[in-house]
Amino acid sequence: MKAYILFLFLLTSACGADRPTTSRTAKDDLNPKMTNAVNSFLKTLDATQKAEVMHPLTDTIRYDWHFIPRERLGFNLKRMSEPQRKAAMNMVEVVMSDNGYAKIKDIIDLENVLRVLESRPPNDTRRDPENYAFLVFGDPAAKAPWGWRMEGHHISIHYTSVNGHISFTPSFLGSNPGHVLIEVPQKGKRVLGEEEDMGYELLNSLNAEQKRQVVLAEKSPYEIFSVNQRQVTGIERGNFEGIAMKDMTSAQKELFKKLISIYLDRYHVTLKNQQMKQLEKAGMDNLYFAWMGDTKLEMGKDKGHYYRIHGPTILIEFDNTQNDANHIHTVVRDLTDDFSEDLLKEHYAKSHSGGK
């Protein structure tokens, strides 16, 4: 049990940032708050550390992202001083909701569970709650577009600021175990349990004919289809499968909206509202829900299940298949705004044309 290690700096608030209670526009004070947080982090670094963390926005490293345990570029928590750790985690806290930030901390803490589950020593580097690295792309102190990311096992979050607009996708969160069953202090923890439960609730609200539309396969995929590519692959953008929201009852539509909200509620209310406005503009009725794998959640009997939410502007995937259906991967992709690539193209086009 000595392998179980708590990092108190991750279990307490990094900055005590206040949370808004009212809806705000996409260009409210979140962008300056995020900018200030990143600048504050950079000020804690010496010249060597800063050179390691900061890369040009055009660097292709920005698109080399993954959610598996591996060595990562950037400055990780293990090598940070306490003030640096606090400043780094403050960057995350500023852009997430309280709920989302709690998920981030819990996912990190699951590395301690994996050390016990896999009988690894306390200094093991594969299951390491300190192997979460930070990179900054561009200069947040300048007026030009810039971005940053935090990444480690089961966390890969990306933020890009272009003319006051913040892109927050791709955004990956995973959980292994999905349900902690061994005798550790985290026993019973289901970090992504609400995503799983609400998916089943929506599925089980459907009648037999609707389920025939929704269930695409009896076997779930081993992994999310979009994996870790720069652009979504594996799922055609305009090829919607399953059942559309417009073909659901009023009660089912409300469940579908609740499921979407569970994912968007991870983020600062500004980013959630920004995404909801985009979905409403594209038409909520044009969102589709599809399922693969077991249709009943039975611990120990489940062979895996997968669902996705797919529309003209968004893709959300949930997969729980690996490790005997106790290993969850989820991702949110904005099909029009990942890495803010469309806005960057527009920005550079205007810059090259003299801003006309």
Automatic annotation (TrEMBL):
Q: Does the keyword Kinase apply?
A: no
Q: Which Pfam families match?
A: DUF3500 (PF12006)
PROSITE patterns from the UniProt entry: PROKAR_LIPOPROTEIN
UniProt keywords (A-Z) are: Signal
Q: What is this protein called?
A: DUF3500 domain-containing protein
PANTHER family, per database record: DUF3500 DOMAIN-CONTAINING PROTEIN
Question: What InterPro entries would the database entry show?
Answer: DUF3500
Phylogenetic placement of the source organism: Bacteria, Pseudomonadati, Bacteroidota, Cytophagia, Cytophagales
What does UniProt give as the signal peptide span?
Answer: 1-17
- Keyword Signal applies: yes
